[in-house]
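F.,

This is the one I mentioned.
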């Protein structure tokens, strides 16, 4: 079924279009970059799924969201150092035959995530 993400900017009340994101596979402390991309107008991966079912495997993954870069590009005055810079979400996939959706709700001061559908 694959892996997807969606980012909503709770400060401005809409999708986080233009945010840079990186996807890694992880084994212990070692992270291997799978892909980097910029979220589309809807706050989603421009190609749809991050990983399709055929390439989605049991294991551990990391999504890294450039929160500070996104809000700076939107003209938000952030303190130096900013409260949130990169938000890294480490998660495990036990059932790659199921769809894993990892949404992020974010502002310059907070974030929340969950396993969506």
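My design for it:
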């Amino acid at each position: 079924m694959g892996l997807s993400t969606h980012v909503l900017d709770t400060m401005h009340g809409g999708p986080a279009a233009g945010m840079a994101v990186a996807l890694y596979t992880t084994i212990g402390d070692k992270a291997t970059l799978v892909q980097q991309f910029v979220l589309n107008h809807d706050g989603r991966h421009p190609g749809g799924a991050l990983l399709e079912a055929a390439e989605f495997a049991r294991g551990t993954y990391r999504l890294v969201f450039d929160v500070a870069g996104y809000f700076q590009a939107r003209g938000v005055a952030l303190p130096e150092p900013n409260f949130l810079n990169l938000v890294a979400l480490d998660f495990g996939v036990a059932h790659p035959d199921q769809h894993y959706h990892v949404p992020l709700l974010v502002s310059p001061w907070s974030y929340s995530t969950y396993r969506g559908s």
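Strands lie at 2-9, 14-15, 20-27, 30-38, 59-66, 86-93, 99-106, 111-113.

Talk soon.
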